[in-house]
Amino acid sequence: MNNLFNKIESELTNLSFEEREEILEKLRKDVDEIDEKIVNLLTERTLRSVMIGKVKRSLNQPTYNPERENEISKRIAGFAKEPLTYEALKRIYERILDESRVAQKLESVKGNISVAKKTNTKIGFKNLLTKGQFLVIALLFTALLFLFYYIFFTPNYYQGQSPVQFEIKKGETLSEIINNLYQDGIIPNKLNMRIAAFVSGADKSLRTARYEIPNGLSYIDLVKLFVDGKADFQKSAYIRDGLSIKWLAYTIKKDAEIDSASFVNLAYDKEFVDSLGIDAKNLEGYLMPGTYEFYERSPAREVIGKMYERFKNFMVDSLQQRVKETGYSIHDILTLASIVKGETNDKDEMPSIAEVYYNRLKIGMPLQADPTVQFVQPNGWKRLNYHDLRINSPYNTYRYKGLPPGPINNPGKAAILSALYPDTNKYLYFVADGKGGHTFSKSYSEHLKKVIKYRKWLKAQKKQ
Description:
single chain; mainly alpha; Chorismate Mutase Domain, subunit A; Dna Ligase, domain 1; two-stranded antiparallel ribbon; 19 helices; elongated
């Protein structure tokens, strides 16, 4: 600061305009800082002056004491330093003392209200509470903290084997999820779970999935599991009409990570088939196609259960009655429906093809259905030749009359209905028409002409 004063005294006229502006800005900044300190100190002094007045009244002493003010005036004389003269300092302090008396008088009228407001802002925290009060508050805060930890972070235990499976279904609200957790015995208190979800900010972030909940999770851990823990999510799987059990297993493995080997083994487990009340060696034909929502890695028993349940729901009382009217068993109807599906994807002509096979059955004619021979090919579907038609299998409907032992795929609703409600016709033969459908014949000679015509069409297609 001395350097700055010397510079102003000796060099001011030689300084550039910019340098003088810079010095001016520095001095103004210093004044502003000093003013702030003065105001803070005056505030502290006035506050103590107010408290002095309050203490005086309690002692029945007068607020105004001229002797004391004279004493103050004399004492500050020793503080005066140039360029501030004693007279200037005295005038300043006279004004300060005047304002102190005004503050004392105001406090005497308003009581503790005015002082309390100033005290809260200027008196330290230590002066607000006694050590005993501070200790009580500290103990209370510690107890609340411990209680919060005990409620939300300590383990909850449920009865039964761990882990327990729990599902959060699509569209479920937080209240529904918590109610299900409580009803399943996973949590002992619904309110605590709700608070944990809100405190974690996860009340709207719980995922639709299936969870494996180990025993001993706290409320907070349970919320974390539902937000970002390991889970099996729902996957959509489309099972098209006419898939065999093995191809169906491949589809659900691809779409929903279902164990295909377990699925096939269970579908061919005779004991399991019997437990469903099905009079068959396996479940071929009894698993209804369609679109399903499966949880990832669902057990085969659950997946098969859903598909068979949909089949049972489809076979209403009127359809079961119709099965009896045909004179065939439900197993026979599904077998014929699977053959019809193997022949065509055209739902409109399914009833006509079904009637062709019924007509052959009535006269004891072999069904001669290519799809049944395809079913027993060791390496899967292929274009059949005459050697394939000699295979010795009850599914070879060229060698064995009547229906094969069972369905060759899982037919959809249209194929099943065509087997229950076939057309009324006298056709015994049909052949592809090259346009995605078939042409039908009543006699073998007529059929041969159409076969020749179809083969010519095939040759023409190969040349193109």
